[in-house]
């Protein structure tokens, strides 16, 4: 057993879906404590580490469970960058104060970081849904400001502190983001799913009444069609979907709405391919600057103009 698994068990049993490692429902407080202690003992025995050092590594995970927390609400903010029409999402845990930012934009980093601080949160991860072509990610700059870790999928081909693969989980406080690979707009596109809250962050795979274009990077319309139908449309109908962009002022949709109303994805696969081949969109204005910067998204040098602006 790995320490990461012990943390995942604690997280799942105590904060999120109350399922133990054998997929058994655990709801009673005493039973939760038994499951958590068993996983700590199992790990300590197998690793040969001293119990004291194991306890100190997982202390941060245990503190909030010791107090019988009332039902807490997740902190959620949808932030907008007008220039690129990009949405950034701040998700935070009221108990542990850990938070993540999904798809931060470089020019908005000061705004986003100020909000994190105003809410008394600690930024754990700056997460990207994919390697963006229309703006530079703010994740590298946030990392420099806050010491957070940057995340992007392995298949994106971009640098970051943590590379995820489908099925990995991103934990912050009491919450778990499940990860689905949803390629087609780019190879590395991921959708992040907060199962217990019924929310998903679709990046550019699915936009409100639309979808990401497939005419550059590793775009492929058939792949995108399958990603949306087989991954996003198989989530519960009530799941609220939050995209990375909207160009018409819309903020949110649902699986049910998009299955019924999306003008591209309600069509057959061949019709979809035909629509995508005929979008005739101009290339994003910042593509030549954004792609090389985002390739090293977690670790690039912050452009001097941005540092001077702030
Ligand atoms: N005008 C914008 C770029 C608009 C654009 O191409 N958006 C992309 C997502 S960002 S790469 C897209 O997939 N659009 C799909 C659509 O149907 O609009 C700019 O110059 O930045």
TrEMBL record:
Its cofactor is Fe(2+). GO terms for molecular function: metal ion binding; sulfur dioxygenase activity. It comes from the Eukaryota. Its main location: mitochondrion. One of its GO terms (cellular component) is mitochondrion. It is found in: Mitochondrion. GO terms for biological process: glutathione metabolic process; hydrogen sulfide metabolic process; RNA 3'-end processing. Pfam families: Lactamase_B. Coiled coil: none annotated. Keywords: Acetylation, Dioxygenase, Iron, Metal-binding, Mitochondrion, Oxidoreductase, Transit peptide. Homodimer. Monomer. Interacts with TST. May interact with RELA. Belongs to the metallo-beta-lactamase superfamily. Glyoxalase II family. This is Persulfide dioxygenase ETHE1, mitochondrial. It comes from Rhynchophorus ferrugineus (Red palm weevil).
